[in-house]
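chain below, 74 aa
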Amino acid sequence: MTKPDKIADAAEVLEYLTACMRGDASGSGAIKAAELLAKRYGLLTERGGVAAEAPRIIDDIVADDKMEGGAPDG
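prediction:
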């Protein structure tokens, strides 16, 4: 089964948006193209900020009930 020539594939859409963003479109067209590309690549969160991986906290410290020399006086 072959793809009809009237339907753009994903690569063609990305090429078009990139061309628009780089200057083939003016004003809001270039901004919209950049926004669509950013969404495609997951560069924006739904809140509009830059996506970043959340830090992972690894709690691997084992409590030692039998400290050497006993508990400190304090």
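Residues 2 and 9 are 12 Å apart (CA to CA). The chain has two helices and no strands.
thats it, cya
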